[in-house]
Design brief:
Elements lengths: L3 E2 L10 H9 L11 H14 L3 E5 L2 H12 L4 E6 L3 H5 L3 H6 L2 E5 L9 H7 L9 E8 L12 H14 L2 E5 L3 H8 L3 H4 L5 E5 L10 E5 L1 H13 L8 H13 L4 H16 L4 E3 L8 E6 L6 H10 L2 E2 L1 E4 L2 E5 L6 H14 L1
Bound molecules: ligand TLP.
Ligand TLP binds next to helix 3 and helix 4.
């Protein structure tokens, strides 16, 4: 039996239709803007996010960095959640590559940031301080139970950002999970954002690729930033073809992943020595905790891997499991049986 891989939705394989579309894709040199399949994907991404334009980039990390580079100059400050992916998992690229200073404010368990905390973090115009330029939000929020941020929250946060002169970037690596969970068009969730990135290569199952979306002017600058990062790709239509299938065929089925995640959380919570919070699971990410502390997350993950279930030990006693295509409810039940046995 192959292992049940719950480490991430990044492990999703391309579908048969993606492979076929990739094999047949019409291509050109995209650095010259001549790849028709990339253009088609970029138009589609712009339409789905309600933005004027979009840009295909190699990864979610590159998308976030490109957006920060366009919004900020060296010495500028971004305000972002202390649990955010950009702060935790992107090698400090904001500072290392962009010279951008990160100012963290607490993320609440649902991924939101308190509006007053944002306002309080904005710098006064003073020669001692960096300039506050950009507010970064994450939707869904990876480390906060994959929580979706609602359009209503986005409206309120945008009013605060406007008042404080901050632009907004949304790290929407899993934006379509949020859209499906909230039954709200993705475009409505990012209507007030100046830029949004989302990944084709997570739950949407494409093998590679993320999109940066924003105004025409913003995307023209993003294209320059992508090039200096070495991200100008040539016959990228091969990749874009899978992205088109991802956006047209793989969005609605995310609901299945969400149902499986809830089922997994309920099952894990029922296993002695573990706790999960099924009520907090709205999308495809499940965190669970070792309550009796007789073992560590790393040791449990290693034992589970031996037994054919892969999860991630993200903190000393906290693990993460992510549901995704093509895992079924039966796979989840099998995984739960293994966890019970191993513990
Ligand atoms: N997240 C990965 C790991 O890096 C942790 C995962 O397995 O969840 N934003 C968010 C919210 C993400 O979750 C990720 C990937 C990224 C950006 C970066 O995307 P990639 O991996 O394409 O650079």
């Amino acid at each position: 039996m192959p292992p049940i891989d719950l480490r991430s939705d990044t492990v999703t394989p391309p579908t048969e239709r993606m492979r076929k579309a990739m094999a047949e894709a019409e291509v050109g040199d995209d650095v010259y803007g001549e790849d028709p399949t990339v253009r088609q994907l970029e138009d589609l991404a712009a339409e789905r996010t309600g933005k004027e334009a979009a840009l295909l980039v190699a990864s979610g990390t590159m998308a976030n960095l490109v957006c920060q580079l366009v919004h900020c100059g060296r010495g500028d400050e971004i305000i972002l959640g202390d649990q955010s992916h950009i702060f935790y998992y992107e090698q400090g690229g904001s500072a290392a590559i962009g010279g951008i200073h990160p100012r963290t404010v607490p993320n609440r368990p649902d991924g939101t940031i308190d509006l007053q905390a944002i306002e309080a973090a904005v710098r006064a115009d003073d020669v001692h301080f960096p300039r506050s330029r950009l507010l970064v939000l994450e939707n869904t929020h990876n480390r906060c139970n994959g929580s979706p941020l609602s359009a209503d929250y986005m409206d309120r946060v945008a009013a605060t950002a406007d008042r404080c002169g901050l632009k907004i970037h949304v790290d929407g690596a899993r934006l379509f999970n949020a859209a499906v969970a909230l039954a709200c068009p993705a475009a409505d969730l990012v209507a007030r954002a100046d830029s949004v990135s989302f990944c084709l290569s997570k739950g949407l199952s494409a093998p590679v690729g993320s999109m940066v979306c924003g105004s025409r002017e913003f995307v023209a600058e993003a294209r320059r930033a992508r090039k200096v990062l070495g991200g100008g790709m040539r016959q990228a239509g091969i990749i874009a073809a899978a992205g088109i299938v991802a956006l047209t065929e793989m969005v609605d089925r995310l609901a299945e992943d969400h149902a499986n995640a809830r089922r997994l959380a309920e099952g894990l919570d029922g296993i002695e020595g573990l706790a999960a919070d099924p009520a907090a699971v709205h999308t495809n990410i499940v965190f669970f905790e070792i309550t009796d502390r007789r073992t560590t997350a790393a040791a449990l993950a290693a034992a589970l891997a031996e037994a054919g279930v892969l999860v991630l030990a993200l903190d000393p006693f906290r693990l993460r499991a992510v549901t995704h295509y093509p895992l079924t409810g039966d796979d989840i039940d099998r995984a739960l049986a293994v966890v019970g046995k191993v513990l």
